[in-house]
Amino acid sequence: MQRFAVGIEFCGMNYRGWQTQQPGVASVQETIEKVLSTVANETIVLHGAGRTDAGVHATNMVAHFDTTAVRSIHGWLRGCNSQLPKDISIQWIKAMDDDFHARFKAKARRYRYVVYNHPVRPALLHKQVTHAYYDLNVDAMIAAAKKFEGTHNFESFRAASCQSNQPVRHVRHCRLIPHGQYLVLDIQADGFLHHMVRNIMGCLLEVGQGMYSIEYIDEIFAAEDRKAAGITAPPDGLYFIHAEYPTEFDLPKMPLGPHWLNMPE
Q: What pTM was estimated for this model as a whole?
């Protein structure tokens, strides 16, 4: 039995998220498992570094699987990518020791959320960015993003359906980066709650519109109630871009995405 780690890029607009759902509901995980099973000629179970909502994308979702099948790296890549739908691609594959686990060995996960701030909606970036047609106070949003750094109780920023046992998370960085007409939220944490990034982005968009002050975010945290926070931003602009692992695993380094996502920090 050999364990392999894989890096996966996908456009999530046609899927109900990463995780396998009930029969008849398309998921990224199940789609890849079917192809891997065909290439391996045995049933393959894929374990991802995290989960994504319906419509959310990824530039480098790390996952792993075990198999008795013997294939070259080139064989795995060509065999899988020739059969996967065009909106999913395996970018790399690497043989690993049994102590690697895509989910449990990840020390941190990182997302980017892309807003296109322009009066006219984009066409080529349909479902790949969130369109904000209104004026935004970007300086206020940059300052507000810093409020989310550190260890906090994110009860007010998770979905009512969130299944996590506890809402405390440590956010290593949360920064809003202006990039021409784009605003990119870059956030890394030891873990994320259901809708956490989208709810944070929704809060920042409301701050940018002047709906409340930066200081009001402290009151939202203190309330520990989802109703105290604002909107949930759409899934369209959200990308899983990275999972951090101990250096001994030596996983490939990948770009953070296309040019409008992979800007200088």
A: 0.92
The residues, any chain, with a CB within 8 Å of residue 129's CB and separated by 6 or more, are 114, 115, 116, 122, 182, 236, 237, 260
* C-alpha to C-alpha distances, 236 to 106, 121, 154, nearest whole angstrom: 25, 13, 22
β strands within 137-262, DSSP E? 150-153, 168-179, 182-189, 238-244
Top-level CATH class of 2-97?
alpha beta
pLDDT digits (tens, 9 = 90+) for 97-123: 999 999 999 999 999 999 999 999 999
Residue with token string 């996908």: 10
Q: How far apart are CA 44 and CA 66, in angstroms?
A: 7
Domains 2-97 and 108-240 belong to one CATH topology: yes
Give the count of beta carbons closer than 10 Å to the beta carbon of residue 222. Answer: 11
Please give the annotated binding residues for substrate, written as ranges: 111
Give the pLDDT confidence of 167-209 residue by residue, as tens digits: 999 999 999 999 889 999 999 999 999 999 999 999 999 999 9
pLDDT of residue 263: 60
Q: Please enumerate, by residue number, every residue annotated as part of a binding site.
A: 111
CATH architecture of 108-240: 2-Layer Sandwich (3.30)
Active-site residue list = 53
